Amino acid sequence: MKTRVARLYAQRDLKVEEADYAPPGPGEVLLAMAAGGICGSDLHYYQDGGFGPVRVREPIIAGHEASGFVAALGEGVDGLAVGQLVAVNPSQPCGHCRFCDIGQPIHCLNMRFMGSAMRLPHENGMFRDRFIVPAIQCHAVGGAVSPGEAACAEPLAVCLHAVAQAGDLTGRSVLVTGAGPIGLLVVAAARHAGAGEIVVTDLTDAALARAPAMGATQTINVATNPDGLAPFQENKGTFDVAFDCSAAGPALRSVFAAIRPRGTIVQVGVTGDMTIALNALVAKEIVWRGSQRFHDEFAQAVRLISTRGIDVRPIISHTFPLEQAVDAFEQAGDRTAACKVQLTFQS
User: Around Cβ 346, how many Cβ atoms within 10 Å?
Assistant: First the structure.
């Protein structure tokens, strides 16, 4: 049997072509893929051939945030039904390494993650019409939500995990730097967690325009208003918690200035080496904590999307059919217009 796939061979060398697939085996599910979002890492693979030390070294099918309809069930699969919409958790920790054994599967030494070029051979992802996946990685989506919404479960899970790193946000003042898809979903997750004031900064008006619908109380374009955060930086800073989703040096320096003493910065955005205000970190006794991926938060994300406890629709800006995958990736690279760009597949 044949399916179409979007396979990346090298920088800006993306082809839609056919590949073989087999019926689902024991414990597996055949999915008719429905929607798949282009993530920042997918975009780096396409634009730059990778990011940091992670390089595309062999052809790879990208895509790690997606949903699909159950088309067939392998032997022994229960709890799922043909025709059911599911969100696919792309993470598969091994369950027996030293980090899995101590309840930290996020740091699994043998993690398999769909659409990732971190290991050889690369782990192929979900930008395809048909996909065989372990049933344990399929989470049924309830309610009347669309496949596009369901495909946002993975990035929302990332943001739920990030928000959890900050502790109790009830009534807290929050700063979010970077209003891309992750930044906006952090805003929504912080609002759901009970945050009070949520200020969002970015360099483009198009990105910031979506922030109020996600729960922001104020937005600041720091390109056109470079002193917009100055009032929040007075008297040793204002915010209880900041989420840096930009991984930009100037943004992070502004965060150090705007966070109050003993405030918490959660680092969500990723970059390479950077100069930081170590004196501010020490003098203000700031807690600066990293956050990556998710585990239990994936199921939580599916529940919140299913009930629209968090409405992800405002971040979905563009949709392209699989045969226009190159156009979709080019659109995703235009931050003046795009937020979450998704592919759709043949049913």
Answer: 14
- The C-alpha atoms of residue 305 and residue 39 are separated, in whole angstroms, by 18
Name beta bridge partners: 30.
Answer: 72, 132
What distance in Å separates the CA atoms of residue 167 and residue 265, rounded to the nearest whole number? 11
Same domain, 202 and 251: yes
Residue 136 has pLDDT above 80, yes or no: yes
Q: What is the pTM of this model?
A: 0.96
Tokens of 257: 């200035």
Report if residue 295 sits inside a domain: no
H/E segment holding residue 68: strand 66-73
Judge contact between 93 and 105, C-beta under 8 A: yes
Q: Judge if 170 and 257 occupy the same domain.
A: yes
pLDDT tens digits, one per residue of 205-231: 999 999 999 999 999 999 999 999 999
Each as own residue / partner, the long-range contacts of residues 209-216 (CB below 8 Å, 24 or more positions apart, any chain) are 210/179, 210/184, 210/314, 210/315, 210/339, 211/179, 211/184, 211/187, 213/311, 213/314, 214/184, 214/185, 214/187, 214/188, 214/314, 214/315, 215/187, 215/188, 215/190, 215/191, 216/176, 216/187
Judge if 167 and 83 occupy the same domain: no
